[in-house]
């Protein structure tokens, strides 16, 4: 690893799975906890969550973001979970400046959705690190999201942990809620393997054309929201980064729980 890579904060993509995942003591939540203990403690966290997918460019700028329970039909205890991390207006302003000329407006309404707190409550259970969220503008192409991600590289030099939270394969139509251990179909395995290979070979620019990758790509990514956070991680890859996959597996057959770590 070269010296410039050694000075960079790690960057991470996490497959966050269904909301119930965060309640349990399972192999995924245990791995998230191990990750939090392994990583250098960041000064702040910038989250790019699949669940803030809107036709706007916004960045949370409040001092105390609320915990958002952006789901329905789940047990009461899930709605009672809170993640009382502080925000960081200074980081929000810095992120908006880095992304110019794209104009990201300060947001004081959103907060931390479950794509954020469901994993952070295991990574950093004390909620001691300030958290800012960046929206995914649904009007932008995959190329534009990758370009925005490239502008955030300097945050890694400043001790900010950038985390993309989604799922590399996310097909709820085929998801088996009753059988978490269901074997994934071939198209899901092939698409995940294609992404893994691109990271390992350093060919991350190819991820922009993910729908043109393998025959089942449109089944693996029926909508962009859960895949786009991975493009931000790809855009943050430095030539000296080591790539690892600290969490692996499929939930319900059609949801990849893979995490990708750049160090």
Summarize the structure.
The protein has 263 residues and is of the alpha/beta class.
Number of strands: 10
How much of the sequence is in beta strands? 15-25%
Q: How many H/I helical runs?
A: 10
Structural class: alpha/beta
Largest sheet, spatial ordering of strands: 5-2-6-1-10-7
Major sheet description: 6 strands, mixed
Q: List SSEs in N-to-C order.
A: HEHEEHHEHEHHEHHHEEEE
Low-confidence runs: 1-5
DSSP helix fraction: 25-40%
Could you tell me the radius of gyration in angstroms?
A: 17 Å
Mean pLDDT across every amino acid position: 94
Inertia-based shape: globular
Distance between the termini: 9 Å
What does this protein structure show overall?
The protein is α/β, with parallel strands linked by helices and 263 residues long. The protein is built from ten helices and ten strands. The protein has helices at 3-6, 27-38, 76-79, 89-98, 114-123, 142-150, 153-157, 186-201, 217-220, 228-235, and strands spanning 11-15, 44-54, 58-60, 105-107, 131-137, 160-166, 243-244, 250-251, 255-256, 260-262. Helix 2 packs across helix 5 (114-123) and helix 6 runs parallel beside helix 10 (228-235). The protein is globular, with a radius of gyration of 17 Å.
Q: How are the SSEs ordered, and which strands pair?
A:
Elements: H1 3-6, E1 11-15, H2 27-38, E2 44-54, E3 58-60, H3 76-79, H4 89-98, E4 105-107, H5 114-123, E5 131-137, H6 142-150, H7 153-157, E6 160-166, H8 186-201, H9 217-220, H10 228-235, E7 243-244, E8 250-251, E9 255-256, E10 260-262
Parallel strand pairs: 1-6, 2-5, 2-6, 3-4
Antiparallel strand pairs: 1-10, 7-10, 8-9
Helix pairs in contact: 2-5, 6-10
């Amino acid at each position: 690893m070269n010296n410039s890579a050694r000075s960079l904060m790690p960057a991470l993509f996490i497959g966050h799975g269904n909301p119930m995942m965060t309640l349990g003591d399972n192999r995924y939540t245990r791995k998230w906890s191990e990750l939090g203990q392994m990583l250098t403690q960041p000064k702040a966290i910038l989250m790019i969550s699949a669940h803030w997918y809107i036709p706007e460019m916004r960045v949370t700028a409040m001092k105390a973001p609320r915990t958002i329970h952006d789901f329905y039909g789940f047990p009461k205890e899930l709605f009672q979970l809170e993640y009382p991390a502080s925000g960081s207006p200074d980081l929000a302003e810095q992120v908006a400046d880095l992304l110019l000329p794209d104009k990201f407006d300060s947001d004081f309404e959103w907060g931390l959705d479950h794509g954020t707190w469901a994993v952070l409550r295991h990574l950093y259970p004390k909620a001691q690190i300030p958290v800012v969220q960046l929206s995914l503008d649904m009007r932008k192409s995959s190329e534009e999201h990758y370009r925005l991600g490239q502008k955030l590289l300097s945050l890694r030099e400043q001790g900010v942990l950038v985390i993309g939270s989604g799922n590399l394969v996310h097909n709820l139509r085929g998801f088996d809620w009753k059988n978490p251990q269901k074997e994934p179909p071939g198209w899901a395995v092939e698409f995940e393997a294609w992404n893994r290979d691109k990271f390992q070979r350093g060919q991350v620019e190819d991820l922009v054309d993910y729908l043109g990758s393998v025959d089942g790509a449109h089944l693996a990514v029926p909508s962009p929201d859960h895949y786009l956070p991975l493009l931000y991680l790809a855009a943050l890859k430095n030539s000296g980064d080591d790539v690892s996959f600290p969490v692996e597996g499929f939930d319900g057959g059609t949801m990849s729980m893979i995490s990708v770590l750049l160090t």
